[in-house]
Amino acid sequence: MTSLLKDQVAIITGGGRGFGAGIAQAFALAGAQVIIAEQDPEAGEIIAQEMGITALCCDISQKGALDDVVNQVIEQFGRIDIFVNNAGVTHLPTPLEEVSDADFERIIAVNAWAVFYAARAVVPIMKRSGAGVILNIASTAAKSPRPGLCWYNASKGWLVTATQSMAIELAPYKIRVNALNPVAGETPLLKRFMGEDTPVMREKFLATIPLGRFSTPQDIGQAARFLCSPEAAMITGVALEVDGGRCI
């Protein structure tokens, strides 16, 4: 396992906590050179020191911010083999017509615009290399949306369609593009998904997951490692559900 991604250069957005940290750990253990683009410099440094990886401070929702990260990585490593669009935000459970402009704009900025900015920064590099892997962290919300999270659900549906569109367009350049659809997980976003973190609310959410537990950063990290590895060389354009059976 330590050589599955040996010497691959991987950038992960939002890698300082939650699913992103799980992906960073899985990649590092598989031998990759891991760079996390993290808005919170303190969280980034803690993870970087724990895992022996590189952390770069970056607000991915801002135009040009990812360009700076990509340029630093190219300067240090000479290439980019894997790019993971992991960072994501949601709004509190709210009737769709009552979601604020600020919340909606933040969701679009992080869950959609940042993916567009990343593609513009990374795809030309991968095209020149004649290879590359892009992984988008979507959600089961794209397939089985929960009430009260309308605009978050929609952003993840957009990401799945973007994944498929990118995959078909970039296949001639030997660039694979896939997505993961995690179910609600033990991450800092869980409380925001549920509205409140109480035993009753947890029981309500867990009742929708046949395997009876939330996903973990390790679950998502292991799935991401597979899709970004040579073992998945014939897989592109999929949105793999890591959901304990929720979408069945």
Spatial sequence of strands, sheet with the most strands = 3-2-1-4-5-6-7
- Unreliable residue stretches: none
> How many runs of DSSP E, i.e. beta strands?
7
Quote the beta fraction.
5-15%
What string, H for helix and E for strand, traces the elements in order?
A: EHEHEHEHEHEHHHE
Mean pLDDT level? 93
Cα end-to-end separation = 30 Å
The DSSP helix count reads 8
C-alpha geometry: globular
Query: Radius of gyration, rounded?
Result: 17 Å
The class by helix and strand makeup works out as alpha/beta
Question: Which sheet architecture does the biggest sheet show?
Answer: 7 strands, parallel
Q: Which percent bin holds the helix content?
A: 40-55%
Description of the molecule:
The chain has 248 residues and is α/β, with parallel strands linked by helices. It has 8 helices and 7 strands; from the N terminus they run βαβαβαβαβαβαααβ. A 7-stranded parallel sheet has the order 3-2-1-4-5-6-7, sandwiched between helices. β5, α5 (150-170) and β6 (175-182) form a beta-alpha-beta unit. The longest helix has 29 residues, at 101-129. The model has no long low-confidence stretch (mean pLDDT 93).
Structure summary:
The protein has helices spanning 18-29, 41-51, 65-77, 101-129, 150-170, 190-194, 199-206, 217-227, and strands at 9-13, 33-38, 54-57, 82-85, 132-137, 175-182, 239-242. By secondary structure, it is α/β, with parallel strands linked by helices.
Topology:
Layout: E1 9-13, H1 18-29, E2 33-38, H2 41-51, E3 54-57, H3 65-77, E4 82-85, H4 101-129, E5 132-137, H5 150-170, E6 175-182, H6 190-194, H7 199-206, H8 217-227, E7 239-242
Parallel strand pairs: 1-2, 1-4, 2-3, 4-5, 5-6, 6-7
Helix pairs in contact: 1-8, 4-5
